[in-house]
C-alpha cells in the first residue's frame, strides 16, 4: 500500500469548489439582469452569479420515461376519466396477446358503429368509446381522489412570486397536498371508509389485471352493443351470428373474449355488478324510454290508489246490499212459506 | 407456475368480495394459449350479494383433483400447492422421455 500523503492544498481547493459560498467559474457563470429577475434569484443574492437556465442537477437526471406513462400523469388521466365518464365497465383480462386485443377492439368498434344513430351525439359516443388497460394501484388512488376530495373547498394560500410579492393562490389540483390530506383523512386512522361509498364497493375489484371500457355518455343502446360483444349472454345480449359477423367467430377473437371477464362497473358514480350492467343495457329506448316507464308507473299507481280508496266503500256497499237482499228474500221466503202453510 | 399438466380448471367467485383475490389472480397466471392447448377453463361470476365462498377446482392429466380453499389461501400458497403435484408429473414425464 502506498503511504498516505497529506495534501492539504488540493483538499482545500476541492472543498472550495464544492461549497456553494465560493462557486467555481466553470459551473456558474456571471448573471445577466434577465436571469436575476427569474426564478433562480436565490442563487445570486450575494455574489451576482446564477445557475444556467438549463442546469440539470447531477442527482436528478431527466427521466427517459414517456410522459403519458408517468405515475403523476396517469393519475391525472384517471381522475379526469372518472370525473367526466359516466360509464366505466371493468374487465379482468387474463393474458391477452397483442393481436387478441386488436381483434377485440376491431369487433367492438364494428358493433358500436352499427348502433343506429338517435341524435347528434350518437356518432360521437361510438368514436369515443374505448377499452384500455389500467394500472390498478393508480386507478384505485384516482377513485379515492374523485370521491373524497372536493377541489372547490380548498382554502387559498399565500405564495411568493418571483418579484417577492405575496399573492393568494389555490393549490387544488389532484397532486396537491390538500388532495393528499383529504384522501388520507378518510382512508387512514380510526375511521373506516363508509360502506355506502362507491370506492368501498369498487376497491375490491382493483386486483390483478384490469381493463376499463369507457363510454362518454349513458347510452343503453351502445352499452348493449358492447355487452353483446364483450360479455354475451344469449337471451338479452346475443353474440352476433356467424353469418352476420364472421370476424367475431375467428379463433383469435374467440380466445380473446374467453379471457375477458366482466367483473363490475361504475355507472353514474354508482357501483354495479354484472346483473346491474345488464339491467342498464336492457333499458329500452334509452333515458327517454326510462322516463316514459316512470310516467306510466306513476299513472298506474294513481289509478291503483283511487281504486283502492274506492274499494273499501264499494265493499261495504256490496255487503250491505247483499245483506239487504238476503233479508228481503228471507222476508219474502217466510211469506211464501206462510202462504204454502195456509194453502 | 407449471400449467402443462393441468387439464381442467373450474372457478366461481364474487368479484366484489376481497376474498376473491386469489382465485382471480390464479386465472391471471394461466398462459395466453391455455385454452388452445387443451385446458378446460370455466369461470362462474357470482352476484354481488352472494356470500358463497370462492371455488377453485383443478384437475391434472393423471386424474388427480384438487379442491383449493381459495377464500383463505393466498396466491403464493395456491401456486405452491398446484406446483407440488405438477412437479411430480414433470419428473415422471422427464424420466419417460429420457
UniProtKB/TrEMBL annotation, chain A:
<comment type="similarity">
    <text>Belongs to the universal ribosomal protein uL10 family.</text>
</comment>
<dbReference type="InterPro" id="IPR043141">
    <property type="entry name" value="Ribosomal_uL10-like_sf"/>
</dbReference>
<dbReference type="InterPro" id="IPR047865">
    <property type="entry name" value="Ribosomal_uL10_bac_type"/>
</dbReference>
<protein>
    <submittedName>
        <fullName>Podospora anserina S mat+ genomic DNA chromosome 6, supercontig 2</fullName>
    </submittedName>
</protein>
UniProtKB/TrEMBL annotation, chain B:
<keyword id="KW-0496">Mitochondrion</keyword>
<protein>
    <recommendedName>
        <fullName>Large ribosomal subunit protein mL53</fullName>
    </recommendedName>
</protein>
<dbReference type="InterPro" id="IPR042776">
    <property type="entry name" value="Ribosomal_mL53_fung"/>
</dbReference>
<keyword id="KW-0689">Ribosomal protein</keyword>
<dbReference type="GO" id="GO:0005840">
    <property type="term" value="C:ribosome"/>
</dbReference>
<comment type="similarity">
    <text>Belongs to the mitochondrion-specific ribosomal protein mL53 family.</text>
</comment>
<dbReference type="InterPro" id="IPR019716">
    <property type="entry name" value="Ribosomal_mL53"/>
</dbReference>
<keyword id="KW-0687">Ribonucleoprotein</keyword>
<dbReference type="Pfam" id="PF10780">
    <property type="entry name" value="MRP_L53"/>
</dbReference>
